[in-house]
Amino acid sequence: MATVTLTAENHDTTVEDGIVLIDFWAGWCVPCQRFAPIFEKAAEEHTDVTFAKVDTEDQQQLAMRYGVTSIPTLVAYREGIPVFSQAGALPQSALEDLIGQVKNLDMDQVRKAYAEAQEQQEG
Q: How confident is the model at residue 93 (pLDDT cuts 50, 70, 90)?
């Protein structure tokens, strides 16, 4: 599966279902350039996962929404819930491991913890 260009306009509908990995990058960023083929290869191999890319130069508001201060930054969602966020390029093996971990999450437990965290923020 090809990667999706993520923008402020299509963000919410993109992350609401399934597993979504988001790569925040910029054209001038050398580590981003090194990570891009690793991300693309994983996208081809994991057709059940949505791979999205955010050009932080073009989508500054979206990068700010995530608090991205270093790139590349990788964010993972499952069923509309953010489950992972980390700055830095990952090697292929670490990206594969991350994908496996996200696929194996106990989503009942994740939903419960997410709801509790939301309540604490509001409370």
A: very high
Residue-number span of the structural domain to which 72 is assigned: 4-122
Catalytic residue among 19, 29, 63, 83: 29
Among 51, 63, 61, 72, CA closest to 4: 51
Which has the closest alpha carbon to 22: 93, 71, 92? 71
- Token reading at 4: 């999706």
Choosing from 32, 38, 42, 62, which is the catalytic residue? 32
- Which pTM was predicted? 0.94
Told to judge if 29 belongs to the known catalytic residues of this protein, a careful annotator would answer yes
Task: Count other Cβ atoms within 10 Å, centred on residue 53.
Answer: 20
Q: Tell me: the pLDDT tens digits for 36-51?
A: 999 999 999 999 999 9
Q: How many domains does the chain have?
A: 1
- Catalytic residue at 52? no
| One-character DSSP codes across 109-120 | HHHHHHHHHHHH
CATH number where 110 lies: 3.40.30.10
